[in-house]
Structures are given as C-alpha cells and as structure tokens.
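Bench notes, afternoon.
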Amino acid sequence: MMISARMKNGIFSYLLKCLSFAVLFQVADSAQGRYAQMLFQNLLQDYSNALRPVEDTDKTLNVTLQITLSQIKDMDERNQMLTAYLWIRQTWYDAHLKWDKDEYDGLDSIRIPSNLVWRPDIVLYNKADDEFSGPVDTNVVLRYDGQITWDSPAITKSSCVVDVSYFPFDDQQCNLTFGSWTYNGNQIDIDMGMDSGDLSDFVENVEWEVHGMPAAKNVIMYGCCSDPYPDITYTLLLKRRSSFYIFNLLIPCVMISFLAPLGFFLPADSGEKVSLGVTVLLALTVFQLMVAESMPPSESVPLIGKYYIATMTMITASTALTIFIMNIHHCGAEAKPVPGWAKVFILDYMSKIFFVYEVGENCTTSQMDKKKEVKLQMEETVNGKRKKMQNAKVQAEASKCNTKYNMPAMEEHPNECLKEELCPEKMNMYMCTCAQHDKIAKNIAYIANCFREQKATCAKGAEWKKVAKVMDRFFMWVFFIMVFLMSISIIR
C-alpha cells in the first residue's frame, strides 16, 4: 500500500512539472508575440518602401542573387522558348530596419509580407511570356541587423536559341539573364550567391538531361545610358534524351530503308519491283513530315532530316534503276545481240562474283564437264563436215556414172531409179534418191532452220535476262552498303 502511494505521488509531481513547463512556454510565446507586434509597429511606423534603403544615396546597395532550378516544364523548339520552374532568393541589407534584439526579449528575426518593405526590381531580361508574371509575393525574413531574405517561386518563360542541326543527338544552351530594370550599377550591384545554379532539388525531365548551370556576372553599357548595368547570366546546359526518337523515328526509317535494296531481288516478272520502291518512298515522306512539324522553320536542317533526304534520294535512284533494268529484262527478238564486252564482263565475270547462274548451272560445275562439252561440240562439227564431204563425193560419182552410160538426169525422170546393172561398180556407194525424198528433205531443212532461228532468238532473250539479273544483284549489294553506312554514320 505504501509503494502504491509513493507511485501516485511521483506521477502527480511529474504531471505538475509538465503543466508548469507548458504554461511557461505559452507565457514565453505570448510575450515573444507581444514583442514581435511591438517591433513590427516600431519598425514600420515611419518606414517607406518606395525609396532605396540606404543611409547615403551615393552608396551602392548590394543584392545577392541565388537561383535554384526545380523543374524544366517545357522546351518548345519550334517557338524557341524554355519554360522552367525556379526558386529565386534575393538578399540585401535595409539600413532602416534594424533593432537591438536585447530590447525585444532576444527576438532576432521576424517574417512580414514582402510588399511592406522595399524590394529590388530584378527581372528576367530574356523573358518571352506574353503576360507579366514576376515572383510570388511571399513573406520576407527580416533580421535584427537589417538583412532581408526574400525567397519566392516563379515560373519563367525565356527565349532560347535552339540549334537542331544534330537532332535528336543535340545539346542546347539556354541563358537566364537577371538584372535590375531601373537601377544602374552605381545604385544596385548584383552579386552571385553561388558560382552556379543550385540543382540539388531538381526534378528529372523525361526529355532533357541537365549537365550544369554555370553563372557569370556581366557589366554592360547600353546605348541609352552612360551608366553601367550589371546582370547575372545563368547558362543551362541541356542534352536531349534520344532514346524516344531512336525507337520511334530512326529505327523504323532504317528498317524501311533496308527494304529498298530488296526491290532488286524481286523477280522482274512479279510486277511489284516499282511498287515496292514507291511505297517505301511514301513511308519515308510521312516520317519526314513528322520531323518537320516539330522543328523550327530555319535554314538549319536536322541530322535526322538529312538522313531522310539522303535515303529518299537513294530510293528514288533505286526505283529509276529498277525501271531501266526491267527494260533490259524484257528485250525481245527485235533487240540487238548482247555486246561482246557485256558478255565478257557481265555474263562471265560478274555473274560468277554475284552467283548468278542459269537453270541447271551452279558454282560447282567442274572444268572437266565443260571440257567434255566443248570436245563433244567439236566432234559433232567434225562429223558434220565429214558427212558433207561424203555426200559431195557420192554426187560426183553419180554424175560420172550418168555421163558414162548416158543415163537421164534425176530432175527429168523423177520416177526412175538407178538400176544395179546400169552402174554395177558404184551402186554400193549411194542410195536410190527420188524427187519425193528431196522434197521431204527440203521440208525437214526448213523446219530445222525455223527451230534454229527460234532457238537463237530465245538464247538472245535469255542473255539479256541474265544481264538484267546480274545488274539487279550488283545494285542490290551497292544499295545495301550505302544504307548500312548511312545508318552507322547517323548513330555515331
């Protein structure tokens, strides 16, 4: 029972101490609030925010400027405008707003509305907004030694010269120039709070990477006035994130470009060679229009635009060459034979380089087979000549026999045949030839000549088709190499 009573007494005493501390803090806060109210009334009783707060008008007032970049809201390349969210901190000393903190219970700072004190008219020189929008009227922090700190957020729209020569692999530099609009350098001098803009609270942008924000102070003499005007210029270093454009504009264009050389691989009889080239050209035109809509209308052509133009020129050339090669392919009987240099250079050498062979012919055909074919052709030629000589000899012997035995000519007596008793020593050298047999032979010779002419015509057309096929293969590899080199050059 005694332990519980002691515990109750301890808890009761602890609660009394907490209550006494709370009362003391409340009394202190109320007392400090009374001192702050009294200080506010005393400071602003005879104060004017219209004049520069210096004791001597010839003295220069120093203003320290510090910029914190919070977010890049938009980069409009077409209108060349940068929209950014900034935190602007300005610090200066007001000679009329000082007090002894010991007289006000140690109160060393108060926060009051910024429109009650004098503020420097520092603005963004390269502002590109239609409407005037300055810093927000937030409170200022006033210290006992007269130091005033004004932190205010602002959404700025500034002009930025955008160079899209290397789009989408471009770097941009956008300047933010701050300075006083009415006070010259003898009245207000602007100092940099840091050597560069503060990026510690920057929110990453999906399109741009920020590589720095260096600051530089400039003193400029304008033509209107003889006094110097200082300003601070922050240069925002930006690099475009190119992944979006690579996957949505560049890779589709490269894939479409590789379709153009395949038009040379299509058979000439398919009827789709020219249609493929025209379709690819129209697709690239659509991509070119998409890029042109987002770029500023200037003489500087983007890198991807140059790639599109080069690819479209290449496809136009390939379509024209396709039409030319198709005309060669469809050369008929009325065309001239293939020139000798074309047979040697195109049909013999280039066809082997690009693996173009006739039906039944391939790269594994041995030289022995070719020699055998040549030997057979030579033997057939020799046998043909030998048969002609034998026939001529037989006809000569027959003429001698007719002359010796006074036989009628074969043309006068077509139905008479040579008898064995008329010329017994020569009858085993030739056969009985009649006029009907001669007529049949003439018909056969005529048909053979027609087949030879048809075969020669087909061979001539086949040679022109092979020339066209070799040229198709040649230009296909040429354009493949061109597309590959252009794609590598733009990616690098």
